[in-house]
Design a protein that fits this description.
This protein is of the alpha+beta class. The chain has 6 helices and 7 strands, in the order ββαααβββαααββ. α2 packs parallel to α5 and α4 crosses α6.
């Protein structure tokens, strides 16, 4: 990974890193309007957090009254998880990756234009949600007295809803042996065929 902090995002997609498109590249079928995409992601975030809160309350209700410090710490850490979330995305890149922020709108994201296999793209999208969200939430389910950890996991799982949309799109749209890359705010895929050269016959 070659990390670059690009600073504040100016709202112009043309200012983001881009690459020459593969001749056979096909854009992901996803909302072109970023406002619509953000609305879907925000609604999904709220929905998934509501679902996760149900077992959280059922299992942790008796611990919550005596765990105020835990709850406050979990909430604060969850709210501050944006940077480590994007950093975990970034470490999944092998080449240049750029981090942008738009704190006025509560955005932080990374962009890298290198080609990725379907499996690596899914892992890149899932990585921060697994480490910061799913694993802490599972720990809470095993040890419900750690309600702060559970709250932290709920927040981190919920805020990754946009990543789950990317995973869904890649599973549904990318064929076997295809590759994907980012260009601006959008993802593209193309078929990647390995060329095998037959070994020369021995003399």
């Amino acid at each position: 990974m070659i990390f670059h902090y690009a600073g504040k995002y100016n709202g112009d997609e043309n200012s983001l890193p881009y690459k020459e498109h593969n001749p056979n590249a096909i854009p992901f079928k996803e909302p072109k309007d970023m406002k619509k995409y953000s609305l879907i992601a925000n609604l999904g975030c709220v929905l998934i957090m509501i679902v996760l809160v149900i077992p959280f309350l059922l299992m942790g209700i008796k611990y919550i009254p005596n765990s105020k410090i835990q709850m406050v710490a979990g909430g604060i850490c969850g709210g501050l998880s944006m940077f480590p979330h994007e950093l975990l995305h970034a470490v999944c890149f092998k080449k240049d990756v750029y981090m942008y922020n738009d704190l006025i709108h509560g955005l932080m994201f990374v962009v890298g234009t290198e080609d990725m296999s379907k499996a690596r793209f899914i892992f890149m999208c899932l990585c921060p949600n697994l480490i910061l969200g799913i694993i802490p939430y599972i720990l809470f389910l095993i040890f419900p007295q750690f309600v702060g950890v559970g709250l932290f996991g709920i927040i981190c799982i919920g805020t990754g809803f946009g990543d789950y949309l990317n995973i869904y799109n890649s599973i549904r749209q990318m064929p076997k042996n295809s590759k994907t890359y980012l260009c601006g705010m959008h993802s593209y895929w193309y078929m990647y065929c390995l060329l095998y050269t037959s070994p020369s016959p021995r003399d």
